[in-house]
Amino acid sequence: MIRNYIKTAFTNMFRNKTYTLINIFGLSVGLACVMLIALYIKDEVSFDRFNENGPSIYRIVQDGQRPDGTEYKNGFTGGVEGITFKQQIPEIKDFCRINGGGSSLVKKGGDVISEPILYADKSIFQIFSLPLISGNPASVLSNPDNIVITEDIAEKYFGKETAIGKILQINQDGKFVPFTVTGVAKNVPQNSTVRFKFLMSIERSLPKQYTAMDWFSSFLNSFVYLNPKVNPKMVEKKMNAVFNRYTGKEMADFKKKFGAKLSSSFKLEPYYNVHLGEYGTGNGLTPSNKVDYSYILGGIAGFILFIACINFINLTLSRSLRRGKEIGIRKVNGSSRKQLIVQFMGESFILTLIASVIAVFILITCLPEFNELADKQLQASYLLNWQTAGIFTALLIINTFLSGFYPAIVLSGFSPVQTLYGKLKMTGNNYLSKSLVVVQFVVAVFLVIGTVVMLKQFNFLINTDLGYKPSDIVDVQLPRNFDLFKNNLSKYPFIKSVSGQNVPFTSVYATMFEVGDKKLTSTPYFEVDNQFLKQLNIPVIRGRAFGNMSGDTTEVLVNQSFIKAAGWNDDPIGKKIKQGKQEYTVIGVVHDFHSSSLNSKINPLVIEQLAKPTYGEALVKIDPAQKVKAINAIQREYKKLVPDYPIVYNFLTDSLADQYDSEKKWKQIITISAIMSIFISCLGLFGLATLSIEQRVKEIGVRKVLGASIANISSILMINFLKLVFIAIIIASPLAWYAMNKWLQNYPYRIDMNYLILIYACLGSLIIAGLTISFQSIKAALANPVKCLRSE
After folding, report:
1. 207 vs 79, 176, 293, 417, 751, CA distance in Å?
2. Sequence-distant (≥ 6) Cβ neighbours of residue 714 within 8 angstroms
3. Which string of b and e fits 691-706 if b means at least 16 CB within 10 Å?
């Protein structure tokens, strides 16, 4: 019996090759999209689950309130919290502080290579499951001059030789310092929040002594390892009691000075929640996406799978009338409805299985591009994981049921008399299939509108006037010798100007300034030379710009937003502002410009000119017509002055665009999802058109005999289907309008939603649907009416 079912299934597949290929291709594309997203979500939710002590590890985080009453969540602490809490709270078995040191230069023979450095307490190997291949976990970081490396780094620097005891020269504060390799760790899993290649003692990144003020600093991650049966809430209370004991006087002074609303309290965040938690990552922890992204991708996967199943159902039903006699004969020969259901479900399983195999090949092919898009390092070997295999097996079974159950029920219920006499018709005008097509296009149109809005918002962020001119400027990280670098470049005709600043233009520091009784917190502040404003075309609208100077200065420029925040209604020139004990005099006001991305509002800004040229960034404006010569000159002059540092440079326009990397990736993801949805939905529409035309073949023949033109018949057939798309547009448009309006609220600077966006998206969907239907409609209109009416 089973053999007969399989033979019948393959016979029908080969008999209807075109429809079989369309069915399998549509389903395999949908399944491939779902599999890719499933891998992404599995990787996100599996972070850190390999840690044996994971349920007992917590990160110390802070909830608080600023002087203006706004609330904040901070995932970082200073260096004092972990060690003090461990000493005074017995429920804490151990602690580990982790701090990211960015990149440092490592010497390898005559080469200097930039490598990522992580700092941690020696307890890292006792708390976290990071096994060592060589070295004693309890002592590998006992000395500040020790270093632990991973096995791939050991091979990179020492080849097949034993790395233990070898010396690595690593740059520390401008000097190369020898470090002894005391441990080699296994390569850290990609789904680990704590990840390293070079690991040094935390003592290298901490002050020698702690004061009461260190309780208010936050620059690293502090983890505690609790006794397994301890209630974390009880530990939180003890932590805050210790904090109040050490900082009671300082907190009282702060509240007097900045307002009674100021507050701060410690909490414990479960280690398994860190990667997708609300406190964020950074400072040495693997960067994470918002948990919302997994939900969004999961929803997209569900939609694509759903419309792929709808497509399967409609294509199956569109061919069902041609199998009527087969069903009738089987019933006359004694086949029960249950057997017919098993047969059609079996056919669905075979098709889904073939589509799943093809989907795996599509997944493997697209995985490198998907990794780049999603900023992941997923591998095809993950498919061999029993959990992943289980997910895909469940997906196969669910998809078989979703796509095959309804056709099996419908086809097995055909009357044998009607099927054998060729009088079978789908009842009820096939409302379910039409409804499913409407649902398909609701999803597709929704995603198309979302894609158009995201594209326009992304282009707005990239192309909006920032208040300065960043074009043709190369940002060079310069550790020293700014004056010489500037002078040497000035001799080249294709170098137009060179200016300096203390930090990258896109990562300006923020601090607090006092203006009378007002406290302006989180105020961006950076230091520049006297060419900076001129080079970037930032106008000084009141007062004067910086001049040449030879000594220290207390003169600053502020922007228009600073004046508003300070409440200055009269002339601001000559007014005083304070930063701690330092007092500054305002000499000019610059036009508001975006010193950070358009994802945040323009804040009050303070600009100071450094008396001594110790700038860490050199901004070099070049002649765009001689870009290659200019870059070569920059590299050559840099190498002369800083031979021990590899040059790091970027065009300022590229650095600004990188700030919108997340938006760019999501625009691409939604665009691809919209294309897939439209494609699969059109296949479903194609199937429904085929079904309808097969039912109306004699009607078409009669119309042609009575003189109806090809255009007239085609339009009659197309209008019925375009109505379905139009209904989908009516449903999807308000939903998409509402959803995208909510999404745009995340941006302080955004496009205005207008009806043209809806019109363009909807017209595009109608045109694509019309082209899909037109092929079958014109083919039916061109058919010979004699063949259509012969059986009458």
Report:
1. 8, 20, 38, 91, 47
2. 774, 777, 778, 780, 781
3. bbbbbbbeebbebbee
CA dihedral 446, 452, 453, 459 (to 10 degrees): 160
- CA-nearest of 84, 77, 46, 80 to 63 is 77
The shares of helix, strand and coil residues in the chain, as percent rounded to the nearest 5, are: 50, 20, 30
**Which of 284, 230, 277 has its CA nearest to residue 93?**
230
Choice between 428 and 15, residue whose per-residue pLDDT is larger: 15
Report the alpha-carbon distance of residue 236 to residue 247 in Å, rounded. 16
Please give the pLDDT value at position 377.
80
Q: What is the DSSP letter of 503?
A: S
Query: For all residues of the chain together, what is the average pLDDT?
Result: 81
Q: Which of 773, 659, 654 is nearest to 715 (CA)?
A: 773
Contact status, residue 99 vs residue 120, Cβ threshold 8 Å: yes
Burial environment of residue 311 by CB neighbours within 10 A (0 to 12, 13 to 18, 19 or more)? buried
Q: What letter would DSSP give residue 162?
A: -
DSSP 164-225: TT-EEEEEETTEEEEEEEEEEEPPPPTT-SB--SEEEEGGGGS-SS--GGGGG---BEEEEE
Largest distance between two CA atoms of the chain: 106
778 phi/psi in degrees, rounded to 5: -65, -40
The closest alpha carbon to 60, from 212, 184, 224, belongs to 224
Identity of residue 48? D
Half-sphere exposure of 98 (CA within 13 A, CB side): 26
The span from the CA of 394 to the CA of 388, in Å, is 10
Q: Are strands 473-477 and 649-651 parallel, antiparallel or unpaired?
A: antiparallel
- Which bin fits 50, alpha (ψ -120 to 50), beta or left (φ > 0)? alpha
Measuring CA to CA, which residue among 532, 658, 671 is closest to residue 599?
Answer: 658
More confident residue, 529 or 1: 529
Question: Do you know the residue count of the chain?
Answer: 792
Cβ neighbourhood burial of 400 (10 Å; 0-12, 13-18, 19+): buried
CA distance 605 to 584: 13
Of 153, 117, 171, nearest to 284 by C-alpha is 117
Say how far apart CA 354 and CA 363 lie, in whole Å: 14
Note the pLDDT of residue 128. Answer: 96
pLDDT of 703 > 80? The answer is: no
**What are the pLDDT digits (tens) for 472-518?**
999 998 888 888 998 999 999 999 999 988 877 666 777 778 888 77
In contact, 512 and 481? CB cutoff 8 Å: no
Three-state SS string across 99-144, please? EEEEEEEEEECCEEEEEEEEEECCCHHHHCCCCEEECCCCCCCCCC
For the entire predicted model, the pTM comes to 0.75
The whole-number average pLDDT for the span 558-566 is 90
Contact assessment for residue 33 and residue 360, using Cβ atoms and an 8 Å cutoff? no
Residue 428 in this model has a pLDDT that exceeds 50: no
Q: In 10 A of CB 383, how many CB atoms?
A: 16
Is residue 66 within 8 A of residue 72, CB to CB? The reply is yes
Give the closest residue to 58 by CA, choosing from 311, 234, 305, 187: 234
Residue 217 CA to chain centroid, in angstroms? 29
Can you say how many angstroms the Cα of residue 560 is from the centroid of all Cα atoms in its chain? Answer: 34
Tell me what pLDDT residue 492 has.
93
